[in-house]
Amino acid sequence: MTTQRSGGRRGRAAKRKSQAETHFDATWRQWKNPYPPVEQFSADEVEAIHSASMRILSEIGIKILSEEAHALYINAGMTDAGDQVIKFDPDALMDLIALSPSEVVLHGRGEGRGVTIGGRNVGICTTGGTPNFSDIQNGRRPGTLAALDDLCRAAQSFDVIHMIGPFVEAQDVAPGLRHYAMTKSVLTLTDKVPFVFFRGTQAVADAYEMIRIAHGLSAEEFQNKAVSYSVANSNSPLQLDHLMCRGIIDAALAGQLMVLTPFTLAGAMAPVTLPGAIAQQNAEALAGIALSQIVRPGAPVCYGSFTSNVDMKSGAPAFGTPEYVKAAFASGQMARRYGLPLRSSGVTASNAPDAQAAYEMQMSLWGALMGGTNLLLHGAGWLEGGLTASAEKFIMDVEMLQMFAELFKPLEVNDATLAVDAMADVGHGGHFFGTQHTLDRFESAFYSPLLSDWDNFENWTDRGSPDAAQRANRIFNETIEAHVAPPMPADRQEEMEAFIARRTSEGGADIDR
Asked: Which of 25, 68, 111, 289 has minimal CB crowding within 10 Å?
């Protein structure tokens, strides 16, 4: 009995879709969220938060640590309040925000790899910026270029991933040369939209040049075609440092997407009350976005939200909490008020790819996606509050993302899907397994899981009782082994290599300027 039962269940799953095929679905390459966003606040409460943000900006101001940015704000009609603080004129600020596009098209290097950010469109990015990498075999250790390469190979292999984050720091490469190696990995192992770190004008210019070469664009074409994205974090509370201001300016001049994201943790870098934290987040985001529009009206931008809370016992960041979800819902309302695309994140504070990681990630995804986000950062692989990129967590997250992608697919209602004729054929007390209606649709009727194990207990035990993390590790390693690098014209590859060699011989980039 056990063998028959197992064979039937696994046989049907295998016929529907092989595991390898679950990686790819053309409809997953550009998500559209069919559901109205959940709203945390009433319209009056949204206006109260807006008014509080205007008071913050006009009465308290933002400390601007960049002399260049400080001068740009002054020339745009803002006020020098002394001690590097800029106070904003609300009307002038709103005029600048109105120049920002409501949608941004990001062009991937490969065919069908573009993604639109804004409206009901959703783009999914991997995790990024983690100093460590972990897997079951070797545990947690400092990030390396080899780890980054494997993560890029995995990300290329799943259609639910649209954009590549910096994943993990290649700490075995010198800081002034690291951006060459990391950018090359992303550009050669994937053909999806890449990320550029704001680590000084030289490093940003180098990365942009490599991306331009990979796309085969002229300098003018590059400046008028968004093919990369970057994140500028305000130094909460109420401060923009030199490197972030420099990055905002560089991205605007280059015509590349800039995501302004305050790092507002309620109870630490922001008020302990969520309305206060959202008001501060809103003020910081608008101030940074305004700078981009001063530099280049119409420059592509995104309103970034990252408000969560801290553990009031230890002060440690907490993610995937009810407060995080409420803040994600509220952030969507604020972004839509200004007609801006929204960035949210898929995050967890868990230290291992365990049940906590899964339920906190699921909470984060519900808050972000049902709050109307257009750009989901840290969508796959984030662990330990952003300190680690995990191989197993990456696959766990891909499973959840694929399920959301299926959730977002519209359902057709017609005579065939209503299936009244099939019900008439089956009659009373029968079953639908052998009907022509089922046979015509069984291969694609339902989502086939990548990671979930639907086998019975006995056969699962016979296979060694592998848990989700163990299965995810196997899938991760199988995926990177099966990776095939997307093609790049030989002349572009050669030009990129020559550029890296020349810049390396010149000493690389000063990442502090």
From this structure: 111
